[in-house]
Amino acid sequence: MAMSFFDQFASPSYLGIPLIAIAIALPWVMYPTPSTRWINNRLITIQGWLINRFTNQLMLPLNVGGHKWALLLTSLMIFLITINMLGLLPYTFTPTTQLSLNMGFAVPLWLATVLIGMRNQPTVALGHLLPEGTPIPLIPILIIIETISLFIRPLALGVRLTANLTAGHLLIQLIATAVFVLLPMMPMVAILTATVLLLLTLLEVAVAMIQAYVFVLLLSLYLQENV
């Protein structure tokens, strides 16, 4: 029983073909493509308004040099939200519960922000490793600590997204199993447990959106330090 709870996080395959590729490609075919007409339908209008609002909010603390990342960060945000939300549907697979996938997003983007800082303003980028006014005896220790914290950033990005989604999916499956077990024996307790399950599902919908936003927001903060 303990192993079956974690079977939902195994990457499914059909005829030897991993289906994670389909799960990753699916979000891009779900959104309507904006047309060149002046007047669009309501769905495309709302979609464009939400994307513009999010992009403006995300790019607000960045200078003009960081605005080149607007398309990349906004696309990543929509992609993560869609994958996380689709993973809450029954009999689906959530690719973002795989640490390898999240690290594949986190490491290259984090490394790009570091390289941009080293290329554009190397003095400022290296200055983050040593806070101003540090006592001389503490300089070597602080440089080591700040270097370690710098390299932990992509790991924290990937692990945070993976851990939150994995924990939520496990809780939903545990409570759903409890509802089916309690239903024949104690119907009233099963109804109360089902109510908790419904509230937890609503919470997981919020977590799916918030974790995608936090992932992109932290990347924009790392970018802000280097542009």
Automatic annotation (TrEMBL):
It is a multi-pass membrane protein. The chain crosses the membrane at residues 12-31, 69-89, 101-118, 138-159, 171-199, 205-223. GO terms for molecular function: proton-transporting ATP synthase activity, rotational mechanism. The lineage of its organism: Eukaryota, Metazoa, Chordata, Craniata, Vertebrata. GO terms for cellular component: mitochondrial inner membrane; proton-transporting ATP synthase complex. It is found in: Mitochondrion inner membrane. The gene is ATP6. It comes from the Eukaryota. Keywords: ATP synthesis, CF(0), Hydrogen ion transport, Ion transport, Membrane, Mitochondrion, Mitochondrion inner membrane, Transmembrane, Transmembrane helix, Transport. Component of the ATP synthase complex composed at least of ATP5F1A/subunit alpha, ATP5F1B/subunit beta, ATP5MC1/subunit c (homooctomer), MT-ATP6/subunit a, MT-ATP8/subunit 8, ATP5ME/subunit e, ATP5MF/subunit f, ATP5MG/subunit g, ATP5MK/subunit k, ATP5MJ/subunit j, ATP5F1C/subunit gamma, ATP5F1D/subunit delta, ATP5F1E/subunit epsilon, ATP5PF/subunit F6, ATP5PB/subunit b, ATP5PD/subunit d, ATP5PO/subunit OSCP. It catalyses: H(+)(in) = H(+)(out). InterPro entries: ATP_synth_F0_asu, ATP_synth_F0_asu_AS, ATP_synth_F0_asu_bact/mt, F0_ATP_A_sf. Its main location: mitochondrion. This is ATP synthase subunit a. SUPFAM superfamilies: F1F0 ATP synthase subunit A (SSF81336). Belongs to the ATPase A chain family. Pfam families: ATP-synt_A. It comes from Misgurnus anguillicaudatus (Oriental weatherloach).
